[in-house]
Design goal:
Distance between the termini: 53 Å
Helix content: 40-55%
Order of helices and strands: EHEHEHEHHEHEEHEHEHHHHHH
Largest sheet: 6 strands, parallel
Strand content: 5-15%
Shape: elongated
Number of strands: 9
Number of domains: 2
Radius of gyration: 20 Å
Number of helices: 14
Bound molecules: nicotinamide-adenine-dinucleotide
CATH topology of the largest domain: Rossmann fold
Strand order of the largest sheet: 3-2-1-4-5-6
CATH architecture of the largest domain: 3-Layer(aba) Sandwich
CATH superfamily of the largest domain: NAD(P)-binding Rossmann-like Domain
Length: 294
């Protein structure tokens, strides 16, 4: 089967490689020439537009930055819907506003196109290993049909509910990760200022209730002052923006998320938008006058 793939950035490139390694033919497209060339070097066929890809492939995957990009690629001029035949399956794996997933899904349905939203967590290393966690929304029967394709890119593939439920689940993930990083930075800054070594504190508490995947990944980065991404501050601002919109629409106040978003905005204003999100340590360095790292 030939799969169309649109959006060949940090995540899309290794995902294409894993589909090809699993034996699928892939026709790929990106507006950035060098990203398209990378996919071609893995064995993908060159695509010219969303419309062209949709006219040739029964399944089209999108992996784009945010809601407006997915709208452009699917609904815009020369987009997926323009080339789509009835029966096409669209799997949007971008992390976007769940309400936009539903909007796009409704327009797809008018053309006989079936859609899943299937955002991922795990970042570039897990995209490379094919061990992403994939959270999927849409019809259960369509989910079951697409599991073999999704399994080429992820080790955990979970059906979360109707269309939009994948992105709602992803927002929960992003809220929890952001809050965890913020309190980790807060606590390590406090111990440093109190004269206790943050590395010793990390070693002492990581096996207890406060320990977490976030702590194991991000405490060493803060202690080494290594803010190379990873997951960029600006991407987390995008996700928390979608979380705030979604929460407000359903009447679920998210005060901690709003606070962490303002910390991220402070980092962005300081020119740190491309830092790893563990750069929240730099927010605390700014307000306390003390760095966790050397
Ligand atoms: P990226 O910015 O590296 O890649 C996005 C790609 O989309 C780029 O190559 C860009 O040129 C392309 N693109 C944009 N507009 C386009 C258009 N109109 N037509 C064709 N191509 C277009 O982003 P990424 O890091 O690969 O992330 C993709 C999605 O996955 C985002 O929603 C992100 O939040 C999510 N995500 C990222 C990570 C991570 O660690 N990077 C982890 C989990 C989820």
């Amino acid at each position: 089967m030939k799969i169309g793939f649109i959006g060949l950035g940090i995540m899309g490139k290794p995902m294409v490689r894993n589909l090809i390694n699993a034996g699928y033919k892939v026709k790929a497209y990106d507006i950035v020439r060098e990203n398209l060339d990378a996919a071609i070097s893995y064995g993908a066929e060159e695509g010219k537009s969303g419309a062209e890809i949709a006219s040739e492939c029964p399944v089209v995957i999108t992996m784009l930055p945010n809601s407006p990009h997915v709208k452009t690629v699917v609904l815009g001029e020369n987009g997926v819907l323009e080339g789509a035949k009835s029966g096409l399956i669209l799997i949007d794996m971008s992390s976007i506003d769940p309400n936009v997933s539903k909007e796009i899904g409704a327009l797809c349905a008018e053309k006989g196109v079936r859609m899943l939203d299937a955002p991922v967590s795990g970042g570039e290393p897990k995209a490379i290993d094919g061990t992403l966690s994939i959270m999927v929304g849409g019809e259960k029967a369509l989910f079951d049909e697409m599991v073999p394709i999704l399994k080429c890119m992820g080790s955990s593939v979970v059906h979360c509910g109707d269309l939009g439920a994948g992105n709602t689940t992803k927002l929960a993930n992003q809220i929890i990760v952001a809050g965890n990083i913020a309190v980790l930075a807060e606590a390590l800054t406090m111990v440093k200022k109190a004269g206790v070594d943050p590395l010793v504190v990390f070693e002492a508490i990581k096996g207890g209730l406060a320990g977490s995947t976030v702590m194991n990944a991000k405490a060493p980065m803060m202690i080494e002052s290594n803010f190379k991404p990873g997951f960029r501050v600006d991407l987390h601002i995008k996700d928390l923006g979608n979380a705030l919109d979604t929460a407000h629409k359903v009447g679920a106040p998210v005060p901690i998320t709003a606070m962490v978003q303002e910390m991220f905005e402070t980092l962005h204003a300081d020119g740190r938008g491309s830092d790893d999100h563990s750069s929240l340590a730099n927010f605390y360095a700014k307000v306390s006058g003390t760095k966790i790292g050397k």
